Amino acid sequence: MRKKIIARPIVQLCFTIVTLFILWSCNSDSGSNSRGIEVIDIEEALKNAGEVKLSDYASEIRYYTLESDTSALLGRIADVSMDENHIFIPSSDFMKTLHVFARDGKFIRNVGSKGRAKGEFMAIRSIIPLEDRNAVMVEGGNKAVIYSLDDVKTWEDIPFDKFLAGQESTSRQFNGRMVTSYSQNIQNIGYDGKGNFYLLTMDKKNGEQWLVMTDSTLEKKWEMELRRPVKKELKMKLPNGALVQFPPAYYSGSLYLNDGECVFFHWLKDTAYIVKENCITPRLAVDYGRFRKIENAGNEDDISAHIEYESKSLIFLSMRIPELFDEYADKNGNGHLIYDKIKNRAILLKPYEDATDESHGNVCGAFYNDLDNGMPFWPLAIQGKSMFSFCDAGKFMELSRKYNSPKMKEIASRINEESNPVLIEVVLK
Q1: pTM for the complete prediction?
Q2: Structure confidence by residue, pLDDT tens digits, 146-199
Q3: What sign has the CA pseudo-torsion 401, 406, 407, 411?
Q4: Is the CB of residue 210 less than 8 Å from the CB of residue 228?
Q5: How far apart are CA 44 and CA 40, in angstroms?
Q6: Domain 2-428 falls in which CATH fold?
């Protein structure tokens, strides 16, 4: 049995070497290949499960109060995005607008509104800062709107759906109104800070997936068909042990930008690729070792990982945890891992009762906060050399009494239970 476990990485390595040789000619900049392919070893991460000190990776922790302006009262923060000078948070009332705060927590203004008219959005699916234009883009599916941060009345509609050629539509009644759904949609949008957008599109009928590069003029610079995703039945265990089965659907991957490079992470192939014009190059792989999913097995035992964020030194992942390591999982069976890019080491983080994922409300794996002896920390966003998280004001006040952090106690003395959540910034080394 052990021989099989060892043989699989050797086969993968041979495939990777051949793939790199083939792709070398399509990459005029050999820097990506010269770095080699990083491998995140899940077996190692589970063996290394335990406490990770924040001071190992960070030099300072700061706490800010988000100004409780009457036009920006926040509940649970489900999403957040940042640039060098701003914090962008969707409103709690069904995302009807986008709140803009300064990095020190001071409220600046609201931008945009929910609706079907020009300059309005139907949903806030992703928030993309455009620092080179001092603007922010709100993307809600196949349409996006760019709002200027210099002049709140200046906006620009970006109809990205023009790239979804020949899509079919179906209509149905829902809550007394007609709702139209399309066979093709835009799954992710990335921005490289140089005027270029990367659109990850998918046809829900056959799973075809394309990556399109364009700019705000919607001039198509190039497009590439990506590896076709796999159609699966999704089964999910509920906290009470019940098993829920969903209809078959295509599960593919996600797109993010790292240091200006477009990275496509294929969930089912466990591989991340750097994508350039007419070229896709393997960048990192996730190796599950003996926990690798058996083909055709029910995915209630699937332990596939998902990349959440990446900094210069760390990759942050969430993952379904094998039952053998239940003590490291939240009530839904999920856990948090980090991959140290400097030490080439993966670690499953110990969960803490006081480490709550504000976007889902679950107890989760986190860093032990030895910087100021405060509450445990897990990032909800990363920008530059800083990681960010939030904590409900009432809970923050409670935790300030539990932990011996002078910084937490000082902030707690200036807020009440009705205040906006507290912003936590951790400065990476």
Answers
A1: 0.75
A2: 999 988 778 888 888 777 765 555 656 555 665 556 667 788 888 888 888 888
A3: positive
A4: no
A5: 9
A6: Neuraminidase (2.120.10)
